[in-house]
Amino acid sequence: MTLLTPDAKGVFVISVTPFTDSGAIDFDSLDRVVDFYFEKGADGLTILGMMGEAQKLTQAESRAVAQRVIKRAGGRPIVVGVSAPGLAAIGELGKAVMDMGAAGCMVTTPGSLKTDPQIHAYFAQVAATLGQDVPIVLQDFPLSTGVHISDEVLGRIIDDVAQVVMLKHEDWPGLAKITKLRAAEAAGRRRISILCGNGGIFLPEEIARGANGAMTGFGFPEMLSDVVRLASAGDMDRAQDIFDAYLPLVRYEQQPGAGLAVRKYVLAKRGAIASAALRSPGAGLAPAAIAEVERLLTRQDNRLKELN
């Protein structure tokens, strides 16, 4: 079992959860999309996140998905989202997936947290619930949770909760937060890994600020891998050229309520999953949106050919 460490880097793709048109979990497609992500350059995967429709699964289904993905990954690191309104549910699912061989657990803040002391105390409670040997990915996603973690509170969590080994950075705007974290580490604070989300829309800048990679999803995960690799090596111009070729589709995926449907449409078109279906409540793309995506895909393909 490979556990997450503060040195983790690269691309951990946020996996979709494939469903049949009737809404059942499509385990054959789950196998296929896991293989697809690794073939396209993923270093690890994150499952049961918000874009994995985790909120639509039962606890039993969540465990079944985790078990299938961890087995299929063949020892490559799998992070499992275990966020829940209560600590009991976090502890139950977290223990189950770690026993299966997960690399760590991702947890975000419930919307009920209103003050800095509450936020700080919450992650200490999560760490105690999961156990001292479980690596934690702290998902900082105020656009979704409504909870804003200040630089100061985040620093206190890093200082006080040793199990937090990675930040999933999704604050927006948040580039300055990366800079401050790395400056604090240079001054002696414990270093943690920083992987970035938000669909990768600021990925080149995030790597340049000191992030270690990406933890997000996209219909073309090879873009995430190429940009992280090139930017980390200092070839920012080439990284930006490749990123810019995909940027119109990245932007289109940012639409609230429609982005996952776009991503699943593209993955189905590429053969990674059998159906683009979302589990209810959730709808696929309308014909007008499909036409727009197809136009973006054609332009993207032409631009990539120009870049060779």
UniProtKB/TrEMBL annotation:
The entry's cellular-component GO terms read:
cytosol
Annotated binding of pyruvate, by residue: 215
InterPro entries cross-referenced by the UniProt entry:
Aldolase_TIM, DapA-like
Output the superkingdom of the source species: Bacteria
Please name the GO terms that the record assigns under molecular function: 4-hydroxy-tetrahydrodipicolinate synthase activity
SMART domains given in the database record: DHDPS
Q: Which UniProt keywords apply?
A: Lyase
Family, similarity comment? Belongs to the DapA family.
Instruction: Give the protein's recorded name.
Output: Dihydrodipicolinate synthase family protein
